[in-house]
Amino acid sequence: MVKNTNEPSLYPAQDREGCIKAVREIMRVRARGSRPLAFVRTYGCQQNVADGEKIKGQLAEMGFSFTQNAEEADFILYNTCAVREHAEDRIWGNVGALKNIKRRWPGVTIAVCGCMMEQEHAAERMKKSFPYVDLIFGTHAIHLLPQMMSDLLLNSRRVILRGNEKEDSEILEGLPLVRDGNLKAWLTVMYGCNNFCSYCVVPYVRGRERSRTPEAIEAEFCEILAAGYKDITLLGQNVNSYGKNLPKPVSFAELLLRLDRHEGDFRLRFMTSHPKDASRELIDTIAQSKHICHHIHLPFQSGNDRILKEMNRVYDREKYLSLVAYIKEKIPDISLTSDVIVGFPGETEEEFEDTLSLIREVEFTSLYTFIYSPRVGTKAAKMPDPVTHEEKSERMARLLALQEEIAAKRCGAMIGRRERVLVEEKTPKGSLSGRTGGNVIVEFMGDETLVGSFCEIEITEAGNYILKGKLV
Ligand code: SAH
Ligand code: SF4
Questions:
Q1: What's the 274 CA to ligand 2 centre distance in angstroms?
Q2: Domains of the chain
Q3: What is the 3-state secondary structure (H, E, C) of the chain?
């Protein structure tokens, strides 16, 4: 029987413990090996990575261990991204390939969740065209995984569960987490987005802004520090509007100060900061802090005022550049990174050149570059788009060449400087690799025991995006 519902309230929270126990018992018997194994793959942004960690935490509660090999798993989950068509196409292809795994081992449970499944048309297609997918759920239903699993396993019914835009999921604190890695940690401070940039699907799939309380964030922050993490990134679609809707409003700068006060050898970052409400208070806080990296990810999207208006970004070129000027004045060694879209509907050659000139003026450390991709249900998807894909690709190539030049120049200027580097790993070439506070990769020779610690490195050589140096 196919159970198709939009009602998360179908699964009362009080049933959670019972469901966890039931799934544990069933999976103990059904597992192919000595214990049930789960394969979890997350696509897309850091917010999705953080969601994936919550999913893994709940799977661990239900008795699962984890494997990197889908072929041996009893449970396979794809946590999807809907931001661009390319990301979605890859996922459709990969879900298609799971059919063979299910044929070889019919006992495997297959789940697809995340932003893509929060879109009605995509969930419907998944339901109709991929009958071997057992669980389909959106971002609003992550915390109901034990209930969905026990429904599937006890009642043999397929579960399809999407939230809806009007009814945002409440923030459920205290979900267990299995974090990826042991040096860098993601800490979600808020969910959702209210901005409705005209090209973007995020507000439709993640709902309205909801902030966690500073107390809940600080408690998780302390756990992260106690577990030995050294590089902590606070996450939200627009962290600058953090705390506005809390019963006792708190600004993002206040939250940062509260976390920065903690003692210890750690770094603090955050993303993403929307230029429309990045405050002077925020910049001053970074400038005066002990732990906050001199790195701001500040997506500009376009350097042209007409396009910015069409995008509904609510700032213009001048406002962006004056914010950058203030940042550079207060934090001279700032590393700025950004997102940019090439080929927004109707963008002319002259308008694109404004984007190039902004890049030239700001000199970003690095850029995340995207060719515009129409998203179902967004305003921009209905705009006329006469520019060919070839032309957009040609513009993108010019943009990348320019950024390469700038990155090489910026890296070159770092030769002779001393940088504090968090050592992340030993590379296959035998050197150590880590990152500066500005998030630039540095490679140097050193003992493997340095992995996980901060080292002073003198920069001796520079490539386009990677620095080389020696231990001081
Ligand atoms: N909340 C963040 C961005 C989240 S999406 C912010 O406002 O900065 C990450 C990036 O994907 C965006 O900054 C944008 O550059 C890109 N993006 C989003 N929708 C897109 C689309 N339809 N086509 C191409 N790129 C897109
Ligand atoms: Fe999308 Fe704009 Fe919200 Fe970022 S701020 S998630 S680009 S709508």
A1: 8
A2: 8-168 (3.40.50.12160), 418-471 (2.40.50.140)
A3: CEEEECCHHHCCHHHHHHHHHHHHHHHHHHCCCCCCEEEEEECCCHHHHHHHHHHHHHHHHCCCEECCCHHHCCEEEEEECCCCHHHHHHHHHHHHHHHHHHHHCCCCEEEEEEHHHHCHHHHHHHHHHCCCCCEEECHHHHHHHHHHHHHHHHHCCEEEECCCCCCCCCCCCCCCCCCCCCCEEEEECEECCCCCCCCCCHHHHHCCCEECCHHHHHHHHHHHHHCCCCEEEEECCCHHHCCCCCCCCCCHHHHHHHHHCCCCCCEEEEECCCHHHCCHHHHHHHHHCCCECCEEECCCECCCHHHHHHHCCCCCHHHHHHHHHHHHHHCCCCEEEEEEEECCCCCCHHHHHHHHHHHHHHCCCEEEEEECCCCCCCCHHHCCCCCCHHHHHHHHHHHHHHHHHHHHHHHHCCCCCEEEEEEEEECCCCCEEEECCCCCEEEECCCHHHCCCEEEEEEEEECCCEEEEEEC
Give the residue whose CA is nearest to atom 3 of ligand 1: 237
CA of 332 to the centre of ligand 1 (A): 27
User: Is the C-beta atom of 273 inside 6 A of ligand 1?
Assistant: no
* pTM (two decimals): 0.93
In short, whether 193's Cβ falls inside 6 Å of ligand 2 is yes
Q: What is the pLDDT along the chain (472 residues), one digit of tens a residue?
A: 233 444 545 677 678 999 999 999 999 999 999 999 999 999 999 999 999 999 999 999 999 999 999 999 999 999 999 999 999 999 999 999 999 999 999 999 999 999 999 999 999 999 999 999 999 999 989 989 999 999 999 988 888 888 754 455 677 788 899 998 899 999 999 999 999 999 999 999 999 999 999 999 999 999 999 999 999 999 999 999 999 989 999 999 999 999 999 999 999 999 999 999 899 999 999 999 999 999 999 999 999 999 999 999 999 999 999 999 999 999 999 999 999 999 999 999 999 999 999 999 999 999 999 999 999 999 999 999 999 999 999 999 999 999 999 999 999 999 999 999 999 999 999 999 999 999 999 999 999 999 999 999 999 999 888 999 999 9
